[in-house]
Fold this sequence. Notes:
Blueprint: E1 2-7, H1 10-17, H2 20-27, E2 32-37, E3 50-52, E4 60-62, H3 64-76, E5 83-93, H4 96-102, E6 107-112, H5 120-126, E7 129-132, H6 142-153, E8 186-187, E9 190-191, H7 201-219, H8 221-236
Parallel strand pairs: 1-2, 1-6, 5-6, 5-7
Antiparallel strand pairs: 3-4, 8-9
Helix pairs in contact: 1-6, 3-5, 4-6, 7-8
The chain binds adenine.
Adenine binds next to strand 5.
Amino acid sequence: MIFHVMTLFPEMILQGAGQSILKRAMEKGLISVDAVNIRDYTDNKHGRVDDYTYGGGAGMLMQAQPVYDTYRAIREKTDKDPKVIYLSPQGRLFSHKDAQKFALEDELILLCGHYEGIDERVIEEIVTDEVSIGDYVLTGGELAALVVIDAVSRMIPGVLGNDDSAKGDSFQNGLLEYPQYSRPEVWRGKRVPEILLSGDHAKVDEWRLEQSRLRTMQRRPDLYQKYLDDEDACNRQ
Ligand code: ADE
């Protein structure tokens, strides 16, 4: 997977993606991150990429020209027609399903906004998906792009050390993950649940599913209702 990131802060992207599991995935050639500086493509002789908004109002807007020319430069590097994901608080909420779907692509272009946003005309021209990572406003799209890169990368076979490790994830089966324990058996007087020491794998699986259900019911009733509805639909088929 090649992630082309259109940004005013390429170092932020390269630093963020160049650690830990993503770093290893890059070394293994499973992903690559190409951070392209939008400022390098501005026609403005002072290197400006923003201007006042028509109609007035506070703040500056990223102009269409440098964003579009950055996009054209990326398209010239590839014979693919990648999806263009614009990170913005106006987008649909990014989900585990989106991460799975995006992971099937060969290349993705991520567009990071700044200031008060980007001229609507270039968004209409190039963007295929507008996504938000939550109902809050960040100072720019870079942290959101890193969230998407991380969530998508771990869905790519071979990125996680053990291919099974994405399977028990929260959301994989529509439920939150069950509680987990490591050594020692007793810590500050708290014992590991007895069933996990029993060696009875069927019983352990049953316990874990029950814990997942309970957690989801208590912490995310919205998700739990969806899980019940999906289960219902499956049973009716
Ligand atoms: N840019 C600013 N805020 C954002 C958000 N919540 N999600 C995605 N991109 C953003």
